[in-house]
Amino acid sequence: MTEINGLPAASGGLTASTFHVPVFGYFLRQADAYFCVSFKIMTMEYSKSYIVKDEHIDVQGIMDGLYYPFYMEWCRHDFIRDVLGFDFETEAKNGVYMVLSSYSLHFLRSLKKGDEFTVTCSVYRDRIGMPKLHFKQAILLNNKAMAKAVFSGTCVPASGGRPYLPESVLVRLQDFSVLED
Q: Which InterPro entries does the protein's record reference (predicted)?
């Protein structure tokens, strides 16, 4: 598997052209020496292409609003597996459930039968350090936004307990941007 900055790059999902790593830094003076301290903040956009299925069209000839979150979920789950290394089936067998805690979805334009569209997904850390992942997603047709959403989630033990993020996910998130309001 191809890697970009130590993160696996899915074939067709993550490309170098959609991988952005701004670098920030400053100098510290200690005694008679200067040290450069730098850190990076990543924003990664993952994308998948789909075609509107006939059975997702309503009586008005447009895609039923019920299906927009499903397409976003399919893309998000692939992103979580390919980039964050979290496999839902394996982790569930190990007693770790990744669940949604909230989402907001804004419909901008309607998709129609046969439209070939792209779903994008970017992950963000929580602004106040809560054990949450935030995913900004969009559905694009010819580079025009048809719908935009933010999905937030966390992990919970299958046996019950407090929300948390597994160490394997935290390590991959450490350089990612924080979701701003």
A: HotDog_dom_sf (IPR029069)
* Residue 173 CB-density burial (10 A; 0-12 exposed, 13-18 middle, 19+ buried): middle
Domain range for 100 is 45-173
Residues 52/111, Cβ–Cβ less than 8 Å: yes
158 domain-assigned: yes
* Residue 50 within any structural domain of the chain: yes
The most distant pair of C-alpha atoms in the chain lies apart, rounded to whole Å, by: 75
179's torsion region: left (phi>0), alpha (psi -120 to 50) or beta?
A: beta
Q: Which two tokens stand for residue 40?
A: 């990076």
> What's the DSSP call for residue 164?
B
In a domain, 11, yes or no: no
> Could you report the per-residue pLDDT of 88-130, keeping only the tens digit for each?
999 999 999 999 999 999 999 999 999 999 999 999 999 999 9
Tally of domains in the chain: 1
In a domain, 32, yes or no: no
DSSP alpha helix (H) spans, the chain: 68-82, 88-93, 167-173
Q: Which CATH number is 104's domain given? A: 3.10.129.10
